[in-house]
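Late entry, written up from scratch paper. The run itself happened at the end of the previous shift, but nothing got recorded in the book at the time, so transcribing now.
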Amino acid sequence: MNGRFAFNSVRNRLGFWFFLVTLMLLSVATATQYQMQASSLRDEARSKLIAIRDLKIAQINAWLGEREHDLWMLAQPWDPSSALSHLRQRFESYLELFEAYDEIFFINAQTGRIEISTRREREGADVAGRAYFVKALERREIYVDDIADSKTLARPALVLSLALRNPSASQGVLGVLAMRLDPEQSLYNILRDRTGLGATGESLIVNEQVVAVSELRDRPAAPLRFRITAAPARLASQGATGVIETQDYRGIEVLAAFSYLPKTRWGFVVKQDLSEIHAPIARMIRQVSVLMLAAILGVSVLSILLANTLNAPIRHLTAVANRLRQGDFGARSGLERTDELGLLSTAFDFMADAVQQALRDSQDSADKFRQIAETIQEVFWLLDVDRRRFLYISPAYDKIFGVPARSLYDDAASWLETVHPEDQARLAALRTQCTAYDVAYRILRPDGSVAWLQEQASPIRDDQGRVVRLAGVAADISARQQAETELVEAKQAADAANRAKSAFLANMSHEIRTPMNAILGFSHLLRQGQMSAAQLTQLDKIEVAGRHLLTLINAILELSKIESGKLVLDESEVCVEAILRNLVSMLSDRAQAKSLSLRVKLQRLPPALIGDPARLQ
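Output as recorded:
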């Protein structure tokens, strides 16, 4: 079998498949022919129904025209002076000639009562309110009343009426001549003729209320008893003309042609079941199915033969692929062929070599990653965002948290259970948002101790930009946090000691300056009295030492204000000339005492400067 279908190239095999392509083309041609014939059958059915509709309408109009002609012939000539018996005899002769007429009668225009009738028991009956009387008086042509139930016939009847006018205009209308017809004996015979409509076709008439006024094939007692809601009857009663595929009053799919008869105000429908119309198509489908089945069998046989040819090398490649899938990455096909399957085998072996090398590189990368992750002191973790499961947690978790990390692979939420209650909501919200974050939080170890962690995380996205994983690192910063806490406490203690020193210096400066001012004041009072030269010299020494000490006290007070942050500079206009004049007045005595000349030489200065005049002086 293999030798029979052995080819040295795929091109030869493609030649072998030409037959199959030919078979496909044949199938397409057959399907196209089927579509064309099916379309032709549908068009033929539509044309046939339209022709039958138009023929039936022409027959109904011809039948109605004959009845109108009879009425005109009976009305002309009309001699109002003739005896009633003569007119009745004339009416009865028409009844004998035409079986379709049930009654011929004359209605007095003034009284609205029947004066002459072929049914004598109806003479004198009041019909003034009947449509065939009222409508006839309003027009000069024959009025065709709608089919209605007749008490005399005990079944539906049709009345045609015509107003008889006196040649003398002074007398006007003499009366109304009417003829009652039995549709069963005439009109319905036209509808019962179903020539060309097959075993399921029929024609029917509805009035303006879409009530059947003719017999129906499946409802013989339908006239004036059955309202039809199907689309063709409804459209015909509204004055439309057309052909549609729809459901009829039985709920069965039909092809219906419909139109409107304006003189009688009837809607006319002729229809046939689609199942009967499509019967030739169904037979054609069966024939085409048999042909296609034979073609499929032939194609199947050829496919099996061709598959046997290609099956051996493909099965071999499949077996090698399964060995690779099971971990035997040294498996190779080793097929030595000259055709395209040989090229495929060679490409397969190259692919296996590439896969083996890629797996080695991947394993090396995984080993390096695992070594790094297991060596670092921080906890490295990888979270699947969609399934909310940890894909990896480094061993450092056991040491930092004091519990084994394997519990997190079963329940990722157990990580949050170790977090301090005050920090749980914040950490959970950050992980749920799947955005990059850097946060510090506390954990509670099983021994009751509290540890501080600094956690950083970043999202990992797929090709569509959707976040699929979250990678993070959590480091134990308890020692750093403790050092920062101690540093803050030490700084707070130093700040408190510095503030206490500043307060002490400020208080001491005030305490020392008060008696020093008193000493300087008393020395000034003593100088105003009678003092010897030696005493004056002693007072000068007291004043110099006191002022020097007061200067030191003021400096210490200013220093304490600066350290305590209470020093406030006065921002106001400064006149440099005035400050220098004050200095000269204060230092002139000292200068004179030392036989010095104190002079001030100023260049031109701006009229107003901003500064602190007291501290500047």
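The first helix runs from residue 10 to 16.
(Scratch paper discarded after transcription.)
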